[in-house]
């Protein structure tokens, strides 16, 4: 399933700090002994719901992760475990900047991670200038006679902002007829300060791994990400801190590539036109569905994502994101998130394609 993207932006300059421990957050080779707080509130303990720093009560379905989120702490979220679909199996995700390698546990035939051979930079090595791609070793030796054993097609995508405050990882497997096994993680490593009024626009990069239900193999996608927020735009129409914030997101200028890096966007567009009787010249834009109740006071965002072809929904799913930094003053903070959408693949019969993308945007 999902593979983790690693940022190309000056990998040698990545400030490595451990972003939590255990099987959930991403970790990076550290040059400091400090460990960011990825859960729980600081200061005096309070009864839930009785303090200004407590998370709001909400029926929104956030992914698993930090159990007691707060604006004053780091937050991580991961793909929920689903044994039938193979989701959420990627664990102990780690990027090591010193030798530009990637590690993940919990997957079959992946080079015996994390103690075996690391994922290495793949070819192509990146999506856009912002995110780096890694792949599992092709073989692993039999522990008795060293005969090579073929490994599955695993790919990882890892992204981290220039500040190091936000990052994400996606791991997917193309060796199964169904979606296979993988997972994703995104996180902020610090705190957040949110406005109570006004509007803000954020832009950056989007990168994705595409896998299939109905055939094996993987593809990549990339694009430009834009997120706009109207703070308190739905005032008076919902209850709870920040629930009135309106969030609008777009993935523009999307392109699709095979795992060798060849641009196959035009072939995919031609297949859509043949299937739908349309005359598209570019891929349909991925969008966030706008409405109240997608945001909370901890800076977490979650809602529906979709695109359309000829007025009909084509791919549908969800987005999950978290805001980081001070969004009330320059430079204006960052947002990291994951988008997961799926739909019928117009190039085949009874084949579903799933696109799992990560994005990092800033003011």
From TrEMBL:
<keyword id="KW-0732">Signal</keyword>
<feature type="region of interest" description="Disordered">
    <location>
        <begin position="19"/>
        <end position="78"/>
    </location>
</feature>
<feature type="compositionally biased region" description="Acidic residues">
    <location>
        <begin position="32"/>
        <end position="48"/>
    </location>
</feature>
<protein>
    <recommendedName>
        <fullName>Transferrin-binding protein B C-lobe/N-lobe beta barrel domain-containing protein</fullName>
    </recommendedName>
</protein>
<feature type="signal peptide">
    <location>
        <begin position="1"/>
        <end position="21"/>
    </location>
</feature>
